Amino acid sequence: MNQLVVQGEGTAAPEAWARALAEVLPSWPAARARLRGVVAFARWSADGVPPRLSVVDGDLGMPGHPGLDRPLDPLAGPVVEVVLGPRHVVLRSHHALFDGRAAWALAEDLQAALSGRPIRGARFADVREPAARDWKEPSGTVALAVGASADEHTPATWTRRSLATSTRGLVPRLAVALSRWRAEPLRLSVPVDLREPGERVAANLTGFVRVAVGVGEAVADVDLRLRASLASGEARASLGAADGLRHVPLWCISALGSRSACAELAAGRARASAAISNLGRQDASVFDGAGFAGHALWWIPPTSPGSPCFLTLTGHARGVELCVGLAAGLGGDGRLDGLADGLAAALSTPLQEGSSE
After folding, report:
1. Which end of the chain has a smaller Cβ tally under 10 Å, C or N?
2. How far, in Å, are 96, 223, 306 from residue 189 at the CA level?
């Protein structure tokens, strides 16, 4: 699930947002998509339920709000929802159809509709074949980002820290901070957008690279290794990682994957210790209008048993937002706040010589 939260002043008018959603829909067929067919014959079709508009009370900027937990269904729909509340606007989209780049493009077009500017739209389901299919998951498991076994009674949760820090080398700095805080060698997953510059495609076109980080490593060394992974084609090859499962029913894939991931979590291990997603600098005025003016924004981390710790970084005019998410069973007994505070403190220290842009 992608969830873009914009915080500001005022409460947006539902009538204006209903008109904006209706106006962008012809240029965004993916916003009303549904999945048809089964296994290898499954295809997206743009004849499903249009985006849902919800108006709620309470603080949408805090974990646990029910407005952030309603499911988006790729079979029955909808796959997109806008949630309006006091001082917040949230754009939610299903990750099978939208990655962060696609969701941000939709957000920009919603702003265009609100302000009377032209809508650019995006191509739907234009998904290329990966350039290579020889990607393999690194062998073995590694330590979790938190040092406790899974507790099934603790729900998945997240928290946010606002930072006044340089945006230079944020991903390698955060990777090093996490390894030092955990005092363990870690393996991190870094999502990578695979679009060409300026390309607008409504799809999940995000691959990933794996980066090993040893305790005490320099930020510059991790940065060089990360850049080498990005240049290697590993991210595009990762799109073909599940090709062998084309003829396996989705419910079976989900059940087996969840069972395996939960067993690893119970042992305090995972295929990747954490994922770090840097959304870059974005404009907090993206939803301005209709009685609302934004001043900060962030992306809620999409955790799961297969992605037990997820970290998002989002810059805006006032600073950087760090969101830390932990899967069910991992965030209790102060572990979530302890991790977030430790990482925030590390990122707030002055940059060392040799760290990169």
Report:
1. C
2. 18, 14, 11
Q: Average pLDDT over the chain, rounded to whole?
A: 88
100-115 and 14-24 helices cross at what angle (nearest 10)?
A: 120
What tokens were used for 251? 């419910």
Which pLDDT does position 251 carry in this prediction? Answer: 53
pLDDT by residue (tens digit) across 269-314? 888 999 999 999 999 999 999 999 999 999 999 998 888 999 999 9
Give tens-digit pLDDT for 25-48. Answer: 999 999 999 988 876 667 889 999
Q: Which of helix, strand or coil describes residue 132?
A: coil
Question: Tens digits of per-residue pLDDT, 186-237?
Answer: 999 999 998 888 889 998 889 999 999 999 899 999 999 999 998 988 887 7
Tens of pLDDT, residue by residue over 236-262, are 777 666 555 555 555 565 555 566 667
Sign of CA dihedral 136, 218, 159, 312: negative
SS (H, E, C) 2-46: EEEEEEEECCCCHHHHHHHHHHHHHHCHHHHCEEECCHHHCEEEC
Contact (Cβ atoms closer than 8 angstroms) between residue 60 and residue 83: yes
Q: Is 68 buried (19+), middle (13-18) or exposed (0-12) by CB count in 10 A?
A: buried
List, in order, residues 6 or more apart from 46 with CB less than 8 Å away: 29, 30, 32, 33, 124
Number of helices (H) and strands (E), helices first, in the chain?
7, 17
Contact 293, 9 (CB under 8 A): yes
* Residue 155: Cβ within 10 Å count: 14
Give, in degrees to the nearest 5, the angle at Cα 326 between 190 and 296: 75
Structure tokens at 351: 């940059």
- Asked if 60 and 85 touch (Cβ cutoff 8 Å), the reply is yes
Q: How many CA atoms lie within 13 A of 342 on its CB side?
A: 17
Strand partners, 211: 188
- DSSP per-residue codes, 322-352: EEEEE-TTTSTTTHHHHHHHHHHHHHTSPPP
